[in-house]
Amino acid sequence: MSGPPQLDTALVAALADFAAHDRVLVATDFDGVLAPLVVDPMDSRPVEGGMPALASLADLPGTTVALVSGRALDPLRELSGAALDGPLVLIGSHGAEDSRAEGGLALDDDQQALLSTLDDELGTLREEHPGLRVEDKPAGRVVHTRGLPEDEAQAALDAARELGARHTSLEVTPGKGVVELAAAHVGKGVALVALADEVGAEAVFYAGDDLTDEHGFEALADDADADRAARRLTVHVGDGETQARFRVADEQAMVALLQALLDARRAATAR
């Protein structure tokens, strides 16, 4: 029986350096980082060990832990198992929802009307591309094509992007087998930087796997303060090009990373 995945020695050293700061923000995406990507998004479940490690990190002094996801808050909370009044901050809908905010997301009349129009047009799109699934979110809709043959999936994604382009006020965000069409959008990068500033984090860790996470990596690195930018530790999960400083292979390796980070943070805060 094989042991836990081995982490790169440079990554282990970077985790130790990060953990030594007095106040830190530890943030991760959910799908593709803590939970494997699946055909039906509501079948997603975190791999063993990841969520407990995050909860344990959140219990340590000077440590803020956040899930930053494209999912809406309610399914993010349900699927991750994060407690309603627990220590984890949940940032949903690519930054447009925050678990700490009263009342959730508020859309104006124009945005509500746009979503109604979008629902009608997506109904037509489903008729044209059988097997396409549409996820309802408070601020938008997400077209899912996982499980479709590659040529059919690409045609459906192209059609969804064209639909989004017809409505210039929609924010169109492509991902792995998905296109999100949002009437209200913040972006993971903006949300991460704002959260780090809000909690006074001296150092930030962020792990993600998708195109939307690249915006987070870019925003954290794009800082006029070079010293602060150097204290932002980013990790890409899986294959593909990335702007992240480090990479791990999959969700199991991410669990090993979080356990290493937890051990380093416990040692640092015990001093």
TrEMBL record:
GO terms for molecular function: metal ion binding; trehalose-phosphatase activity. Keywords: Hydrolase, Magnesium, Metal-binding. One of its GO terms (biological process) is trehalose biosynthetic process. Its EC number is 3.1.3.12. It holds the Pfam family Trehalose_PPase. It catalyses: alpha,alpha-trehalose 6-phosphate + H2O = alpha,alpha-trehalose + phosphate. Pathway: Glycan biosynthesis; trehalose biosynthesis. Its cofactor is Mg(2+). PANTHER family: TREHALOSE 6-PHOSPHATE PHOSPHATASE. Removes the phosphate from trehalose 6-phosphate to produce free trehalose. Belongs to the trehalose phosphatase family. This is Trehalose 6-phosphate phosphatase.
